[in-house]
Amino acid sequence: MGEDRYARQSQVAGFGKAGQERLQAAKVVLVGCGALGCMQAQLLGRAGVGRLVLVDRDFVELTNIHRQLLYDEDDAANALPKAEAAARRLRRINSTIEIVARVEDVTAKNIESLVEGATVVLDATDNIEARYLVNDACVKQGRPWVYGGALGVEGTVMAIVPGQTACLRCLFDSPPPPGTLPTCEMMGVLNVTPAVTAALQVTEALKIIAGRPPFRGVHAFDLWTTSFRTVKLERNADCPCCGQRKFEFLEGRSEPAATSLCGRNAVQIRPAGEQTIALEELAKRLQGAGKVTFNGFLLRLEVGPQTLHVFPDGRAIVKGTDDPAVARTLYARFVGS
User: Fold this and answer.
1) What are the extents of the domains in the chain?
2) Residue 2: per-residue pLDDT
3) H or E stretch including 60?
């Protein structure tokens, strides 16, 4: 059955039966089960990856369905965890592979155990913090991973093989301050954008699994202009991560703290280090994401049953939940890392 199922794929030059055998013996970890993760999971699951681990902290909402292709209205109505809903659907697509759902928030405490034993790790996260954690963990353990970002009609992909290619910190030494990067909630995303991005990510992952060299640099595209660009990158010998092997994000110094506020049905998010947010500019970018008010001292954003109160130092109080994971998700969506 397996040979017939993957016959067309095994005929591809440069992949072949040997590549298929390596794929069926591989373990791939997907960090995030949103738009990118859904497409990555489908492509890899249908291709016959041996073990697929799905990691996500969030649950399915109606606004996800237009681009997160493993979910349906019933999943949203039941608020199923994304990792579990994705795993259920994938098991119906391919019952011959092992699929593991991990409903977890990626942190400095668990990221190393999550990626342990992975042949390759695929980035489908929704925040910068998690990407730097993935980079630290994968470089430390010597595990290849593939970065991907999709927003509006633009996407970016970068394959990282520790010891061979540049890593994320070779390109961006430090994450940008909270509130400075646009998000899907601010700018939206066309549903084809994550599909193209994820397809490029999976292509790089298949190269790595099959023993072929990945592209050493960044792929970027703009679907409105139908333009694709590539930029080659070299490793930075002075990179604090892959050069000096300083894993600062794993050590937790760069991880925001989330603390439930007793008796208030609220969680405080405190970013690591000193931060300054231009709240007036953030308020402009959040128009359309929910009801936004700014009084010169703090920004208030009402999104469904939750309300975010964002302060100039990057601190936020998320009212309407006592779950730190929910608060961290909202903070990542609307403020940033």
Assistant:
1) 2-232, 257-334
2) 46
3) none
pTM of model > 0.85 = no
Nearest 5°: the CA angle 67, 98, 145 is 60
Phi, psi of 310 (to 5 degrees): -105, 130
Amino acid making up residue 33: C
- Residue 127's pLDDT is 78
Q: Give the tokens for residue 108.
A: 């400095």
pLDDT, block means (10 residues), the chain with 337 residues: 80 95 98 96 98 91 92 90 94 97 88 97 89 97 97 96 96 78 76 97 98 94 96 95 95 67 77 78 90 86 92 87 88 82
Rounded Cα–Cα distance for residues 43 and 49 (Å):
9
Residue with tokens 């995030």: 32
Q: Please tell me the number of Cα atoms within 13 Å of 322 on its side-chain side.
A: 5
185: which residues sit within 8 A by CB, 6+ positions away?
Answer: 286, 289, 333, 334
What pLDDT, on the 0 to 100 scale, is given for residue 143?
98
b vs e for 136-161, b when ≥16 Cβ sit within 10 Å of the residue's Cβ? Answer: bbbbbeebbbbbbbbbbbbbbbbbbb
- Rounded to 5°, angle at Cα 114 from 260 and 166: 110
Cα R_g (the chain), whole angstroms: 20
Q: Which CATH class is domain 257-334?
A: alpha beta
User: Which residue of the set 33, 38, 138, 184 is catalytic?
Assistant: 184
Neighbours of 244 (CB within 10 A): 11
Q: Which residues pair with 293 in a beta bridge?
A: 300
184 is an active site residue: yes
Residue that the structure tokens 């608020």 belong to:
79
CATH architecture, range 2-232: 3-Layer(aba) Sandwich (3.40)
Amino acid symbol at 170: C
CA-to-CA distance for 77 and 83, rounded, in angstroms? 16
